[in-house]
Amino acid sequence: MNPAAVLRVARLDLTLLWRNRTALFTVVGLPVLFAGMLVPMRGQEIDGVDGALLQGTGHLGFFLVFAVFMNLVNVFTARREDRTLKRLRGTALTDAEITGGSILTATAMYAVQALALLAVLGAAMGGRLPADPVLVLAGLAGGVAVFATLAFAVSGITPNAELAQLTVLPIMFGCMLGAGVMFPMDGLPEWLQRICWFVPLSPVVEIVRTGYFGQDFVHGAGHASLAFGEGWLACVRSFLVLIFWAALGRALATRWFRWEPRHA
């Protein structure tokens, strides 16, 4: 893979995103809206921590749905249907360079969102630097990999760009309601908690909160304090779920992703 070629495709993606106001609002506007929702939660204790920080660390994961998943589904579907993907495959670019540029753009935009939100949590919401920043980064990187592969798969079953906003909704709402983004899962029945473990965003939220607070947010209520490095052991289950989703997403993407229009 040629890094220069990947950067050229990424620059093209950024230009097209800037021209598409609807996609731009999805990637930039919605995260700003969700960040604003943290203000009323400041000072309210939820699950043993400040409510704004609890929801804010959940949003660090949830922004993946906007910047990576929804963005890439729109990009791949629109470019497939207008035959851009087909034309790009006729150039010297490899398949990995074509898709890698789009993933790079989405990842860069997500990184900006995540850094901005971390700054807001620290400066305006009474937060601090993450207790284990490397663990937080590992969780977010795993989330990028999972939601990028899911975007490949979902774009393949999306008929056209107009319907892309609809086909992403089941995963978006599932992640919003079942991953503990807005509220903790500890109060749910045990059988329902076990189902929520396997929502693709759940392991990301668990890892991020564990790394940010330095407490165990994987194994139920209590959230015991962890020494530096112990968070990695606490998050073994979460990383295994991420690996499962990455493998499943790759298998579905291999089966469903299309380079040419569905009506071709």
TrEMBL record:
Keywords: Membrane, Transmembrane, Transmembrane helix
InterPro entries: ABC-2_transporter (IPR052902), ABC2_TM (IPR013525)
Topology in membrane: Multi-pass membrane protein
Subcellular location: Membrane
Gene Ontology MF terms in the entry: ABC-type transporter activity
GO CC terms in record: membrane
Domain (ABC-2 type transporter transmembrane): residue spans on this chain: 14-213
PANTHER family: DOXORUBICIN RESISTANCE ABC TRANSPORTER PERMEASE PROTEIN DRRC-RELATED (PTHR43027), TRANSPORT PERMEASE PROTEIN (PTHR43027:SF2)
Protein name per the record: ABC transporter permease
Source species of the chain: Actinomadura darangshiensis
